[in-house]
């Protein structure tokens, strides 16, 4: 068998694909520095995080402190607006393709709730049930049903109903929203959309026509009953960095149709239990922890599937310690353990071999089980009437206070 040239092998290892529908990386995981350069966004640095803390009067969220939300576009301009006493609004979303959310799905909503509470601003949440119909083997009716079920999990995160509008594309698109969609569509050529999203001649035209649907919630004029008279209100979008292509397109089009560019604050990817080189998948329930999992199931998944950076034997582990860069339990604790000092204590002891993999996994099981149980209790309190209230078309307050 012919050997592979070293330069070809290196090229294959370095190739990574990141777009809204596919995330894949080489052996080293996602190269976020390369991604920032490729996408043209900015790093979220310490002075910007300190400024958020100063303006909001509260400590930065752990996702900020630990670099989990790590990149942005024009966040400094949003903070300038806020500091002057002007307004902005938040926009994030969910593609409803599964009955229940996993912990990776919760991350942007947990962070968005922090932003809503800290800045006291309105929020729109888009449920792209149409997208899931176009990309997945789902009927319109099933997509709409999943959207409503997912809305209950989103509401359970604790959003302020007075400041939050949740909408399903199938139920809401039309009127001013649709007018903005066709304005965007007329500004984006076929070649441009292929270049941004990688569509192929085999993709049906529904996929090619979808990007304007996700673009226009960035414009307040898409919500005339919510933001009446505020057509130049700035928008901040918290999302994972794989959604960036949608909003690069949006930011390019916005000035051409008379609107402000949306700003973004973007997160790293939440890893699968098997490690950063595998993807969480609804077809593999063991790749993720779901908000419906029992404590017993969480324990089984973590103990059996969470990739370990520990050594092969206790003796070797005591001598060499763990590789924290690949250990999934440490990565999950980095997301969900609130106490910075406790996290550092665990990491130091594990790295030095004083803590074993089993001990770290047991700590993680406790943290995740408590979080999932809290979510279940909150989810159980969400009624159909509450979902209707969040989805009601009405003015959103956009004054601070």
TrEMBL record:
Keyword rRNA-binding: no
GO molecular function term, any single one: ATP binding
Any one GO biological process: reproductive structure development
Top-level EC class as recorded in UniProt: ligase
Predominant location category: cytoplasm
GO CC aspect terms: cytoplasm
Alphabetized SUPFAM superfamilies for the sequence: Nucleotidylyl transferase
UniProt entry keywords in alphabetical sequence: Aminoacyl-tRNA synthetase, ATP-binding, Cytoplasm, Ligase, Nucleotide-binding, Protein biosynthesis
Superkingdom of origin organism: Eukaryota
Entry EC number(s): 6.1.1.2
InterPro entries linked: aa-tRNA-synth_I_CS, aa-tRNA-synth_Ic, Rossmann-like_a/b/a_fold, Trp-tRNA-ligase
Stored CDD domains: TrpRS_core
Cellular compartment(s): Cytoplasm
Coiled coil: none
Keyword Glycoprotein: no
Gene3D superfamilies (UniProt xref): HUPs, Tyrosyl-Transfer RNA Synthetase
UniProt record similarity statement: Belongs to the class-I aminoacyl-tRNA synthetase family.
Xref: NCBIfam families: trpS
Protein name: Tryptophan--tRNA ligase, cytoplasmic
Upper lineage: Eukaryota, Viridiplantae, Streptophyta, Embryophyta, Tracheophyta
């Amino acid at each position: 068998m012919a050997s592979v040239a070293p330069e070809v092998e290196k090229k294959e290892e370095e190739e990574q694909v990141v777009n809204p529908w596919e995330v894949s990386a080489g052996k080293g995981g996602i190269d976020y520095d390369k991604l920032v350069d490729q996408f043209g966004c900015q790093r979220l640095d310490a002075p910007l995080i300190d400024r958020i803390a100063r303006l909001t009067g509260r400590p930065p969220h752990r996702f900020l402190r630990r670099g989990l939300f790590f990149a942005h576009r024009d966040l400094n301009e949003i903070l300038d607006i806020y500091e002057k006493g002007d307004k902005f609004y938040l926009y994030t979303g969910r593609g409803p393709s599964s009955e229940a959310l996993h912990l990776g799905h919760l991350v942007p909503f947990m962070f968005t709730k922090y932003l809503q509470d800290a800045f006291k601003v309105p929020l729109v949440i888009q449920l792209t049930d149409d997208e899931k119909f176009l990309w997945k083997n789902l009927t319109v009716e099933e997509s709409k049903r999943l959207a409503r079920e997912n809305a209950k999990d989103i509401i359970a995160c604790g959003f302020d109903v007075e400041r939050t509008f949740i909408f399903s594309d199938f139920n809401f698109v039309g009127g001013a929203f649709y007018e903005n969609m066709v304005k965007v569509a007329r500004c984006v050529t076929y070649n441009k959309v292929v270049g941004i999203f990688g569509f192929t001649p085999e993709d049906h035209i529904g996929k090619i026509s979808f990007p304007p649907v996700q673009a226009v919630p960035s414009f307040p004029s898409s919500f005339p009953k919510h933001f009446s008279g505020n057509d130049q209100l700035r928008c901040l979008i918290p999302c994972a960095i794989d959604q960036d292509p949608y909003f690069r397109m949006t930011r390019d089009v916005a000035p051409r149709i008379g609107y402000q560019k949306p700003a973004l604050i973007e997160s790293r990817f939440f890893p699968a239990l098997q490690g950063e080189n595998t993807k969480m998948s609804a077809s593999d329930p063991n790749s993720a922890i779901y908000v419906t999992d029992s404590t017993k199931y969480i324990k089984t998944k973590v103990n059996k599937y969470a990739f370990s950076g520990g050594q092969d034997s206790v003796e070797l582990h005591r001598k060499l310690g763990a590789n924290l860069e690949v250990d999934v339990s440490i990565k999950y604790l980095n997301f969900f353990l609130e106490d910075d000092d406790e996290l550092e204590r665990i990491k130091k002891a594990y790295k030095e071999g004083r803590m074993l993999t089993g001990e770290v996994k047991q700590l993680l099981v406790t943290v995740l089980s408590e979080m999932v149980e809290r979510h279940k209790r909150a989810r159980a309190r969400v009624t159909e009437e509450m979902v209707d209230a969040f989805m009601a078309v009405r003015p959103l307050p956009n004054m601070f206070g």
